[in-house]
Hints:
By secondary structure, this protein is of the alpha/beta class. It has helices at about 25-35, 60-65, 85-90, 105-120, 165-170, 190-195, 205-210, 215-225, and strands at about 15, 40-45, 75-80, 95-100, 120-125, 145-150, 180-185, 200-205.
Amino acid sequence: xxxxxxxxxxxxxxxxxxxxxxxxxxxxxxxxxxxxxxxxxxxxxxxxxxxxxxxxxxxxxxxxxxxxxxxxxxxxxxxxxxxxxxxxxxxxxxxxxxxxxxxxxxxxxxxxxxxxxxxxxxxxxxxxxxxxxxxxxxxxxxxxxxxxxxxxxxxxxxxxxxxxxxxxxxxxxxxxxxxxxxxxxxxxxxxxxxxxxxxxxxxxxxxxxxxxxxxxxxxxxxxxxxxxxxx
Length: 231
Ligand code: DX5
Ligand code: ZN
């Protein structure tokens, strides 16, 4: 069945990172970003082990699902043991779950993707800035989405690391039309043109979007999509 991420988008999809918003008003903020033109919601799950921060768990995802029944929920697992959290997030309403190549043994990647799909959820594979894109090559055909980190994961608000663009240029030609290429970290209207040109078609936007006032979000999203300029 075709879902949001299996159809090549005419413009890149924008995925606001909810951790960059106000946790006390998460559903309101997320709904506001979707009304402003965002396409899906990005949920950053951090366990304090794989990354040096703690964020949210399945209950947060469940609450967001209840508040926004039609939203596409993209869960980014930055955890040391992703297998443990697949089923809890699937039950909590995730549409998509990504896990890090660095967190698993090579032999676990294919079974983990299969176990995500068995639960009716799409699967993503992620690499961190120090991991070469070549490490993805044996697995590039397997997931629904490849996520190339453009910051070292752990916090919103960090500067974009441009080597992500070179990685995209290597990976993009190897993807099928039903596979997406996502970028996460430091994406803003200032670098969105380069990001789109490199081949990314799903752009996570945290602080550039969710830390900005609601009234500015439609123009920021248009700019990220390449539809207009933000001054
Ligand atoms: C970083 C997270 C990102 C982050 C993005 O560890 O995976 O999704 O929230 O925020 P910005 O866009 O501010 O870098
Ligand atoms: Zn993320």
